[in-house]
Amino acid sequence: MATSRPQEQRVAVIGLGAMGIVTVKNLLEEGFNVTGFDRNGYVGGLWHFTEDEDTLSVLESTIVNVSIARVSNAACSYGSPSRDLTMPRVAIQIFPFKRARTPPFCSAKQVNEYLENYVDHFNLRPHLRLNTAVKYVAREEESDRWRLDFELAPSEHFDKVVIATGPHLNPVMPEINGSSLFAGMILHSKSFKRPEAFTGKKVVVLGLGNTGSDIADILVGHASSIYISHNHGAIVLPRDIDKVTGSKGFTHRFSIIVGFLERWCPSLSEALFNRKAKSIMSKAFGDVDPAWRLDPAPSVKVTNPVVSDTLINRLRAGDIQTIPGIKKVTGPKELELTDGQEVEADAIICCTGYKYGFDILDPQVDPSDKPAIAWLKAWGSKGRPLPRLYQNVFSLKQPDSLAFLGCAWFITSAFCLADLTSMCIAQVWAGHSKLPPQPEMHRWMDQQEQRITGMGVEEHLGWGWKGWLFWWRERPLWKMLMDGPQTAAAWRLFDGKRKKWDGARAEIERANEVGEFDKEK
């Protein structure tokens, strides 16, 4: 709840990529005294190409995966937010792409120009400090404000802070057994800038995702051989889904249907979504060769589809080959794969993603400081933290003054989502909407962890149809779970996104001393 007028409150926005600049704009519209900070000398974040191998950026050849009709903030003005986001009382200031000279799927350079123009159109530059690296953010209880420490400037105090550094801060580098034997290059995709550096080389691209697919495609015509090394399948979708389906693809109507099913029958929702994605893939590319090992693919609720217009054709032509995962390095150029075969390579490019990084935050308010054990053990976590945030936005400890962008995702463009999320933050902090009490926010987060780790406990012990069915069929076990001592085995009892443990029931019965419960019946 706001304790003073917005004009009297200083707000710091850390990170001035697409998420940060829309946040500055939306907070300014509500009257807050806003200052945005970025360590780079430019706005736009990763959309600004740079040759610096220590700085993440798009490639010069990058094409966006989402049509500009869905990317620009113009699209946001017509969409409906989720019921947990509050639309502002003032209208959104629309700033669409200039469609007359921008193709539907534009280049990264055009996106960067759009972001620069966005900043100028809304006169945001007076509120931005570039080349200013924030070193540490801490809450000072005596002043009830946030202290920002900078690398090359005196500390300053703010009433509220938005962390908009995004989800691509810390690259995930895999451990490859025997890597010290390798004579070639092993690098993260963050450091890949131009394909010319790999001319005539045998390259293994580790990871089948959007980045891995893009880099493999760019290497065609430069590298002498290109392998994509992957352990699981993938759903591959074209950029222009509407053109393939002859419809509007993932429409708002479809989202409403999926959302309804997600609430009342999540397994059916997941099946419907996967079926639609696979249908689009089949219409776009036809049958795929089983040797590529694209099937079975993880659910689109767990792993993002690969968006590529060229990957399937490159595989058919033999320009790119797929191989299993790397087991170990056996020599200066030799790699042993998980199926026992060997390949030669001069370079390994690790397209293994990123994880959230909140190193600048005091550990007391770091939402990823104490991740749930169940989440870390879940297949989809891959060692990445799950930030504990209400609605994936607001700090559970300081919701009235600390918020995050880049932790909430659903099916829309990232720009539009950032716009909606930052409007929500502005409305709540301006006092136009209220957050629930902190205990309720903590309960929401606990349930969120259970939902996404696929433990199934809440559904089977709740008031939905699964809960009633479980109560009817397994009343003694239901009673143990509801009234007996809590045991870790409960989180492995039900089928979900992770495998259940066949010994979970016996362990629960032992912990509950079944005989005592039998006497009560």
TrEMBL record:
Family membership = Belongs to the FMO family.
A Pfam family of this chain: FMO-like
Protein name, UniProt field: Monooxygenase
Superkingdom field: Eukaryota
Keyword entries, A-Z: FAD, Flavoprotein, NADP, Oxidoreductase
**The keyword RNA-binding is annotated on this UniProt entry:** no
Q: What is the lineage of its organism?
A: Eukaryota, Fungi, Dikarya, Ascomycota, Pezizomycotina
Question: Which Gene3D superfamilies does the annotation name?
Answer: FAD/NAD(P)-binding domain
Q: Has the keyword Thylakoid been applied to this entry?
A: no
Gene Ontology molecular-function annotations = flavin adenine dinucleotide binding; N,N-dimethylaniline monooxygenase activity; NADP binding
